[in-house]
Amino acid sequence: MLKEISIGLGLASVISMALMGYDVTPFLFFVAAGGGLYYIARMRGMVNANNFESPAGAGRYEISFSDIGGQFSAIHELREALDFIKNHQVIQSLGIRPLKGILLTGPPGTGKTLMAKAAANYTDAAFIAASGSEFIEMYAGVGAQRVRKLFQSAREMAPRQGKNYALVFIDEVEILGGKRGQTTSHLEYDQTLNQLLVEIDGIKIDDRVRVLLVAATNRADMLDPALLRPGRFDRIVRVDLPDKEGRLEILKIHTRNKPLAEDVRLEIIARETFGFSGAHLESLANEAAILAMREKAKEIKQHHFNESIDKVMMGGKLDKRPSEGEMKRIAVHEVGHALISEKIRAGSVSALTITPRGDALGYMRQTPEDDTYLYTKDYLEDQIAIILAGAAAEETILGNYSTGSANDFEQAVRMAETMLRTGMSDLGVVCLDSLPRDLKHNTLTSIMRMQEERVKNHISSSQHIFDVMTEILLENEKISGEQFRKILREHVA
Question: At 105, is the secondary structure helix, strand, or coil?
Answer without folding.
Answer: strand
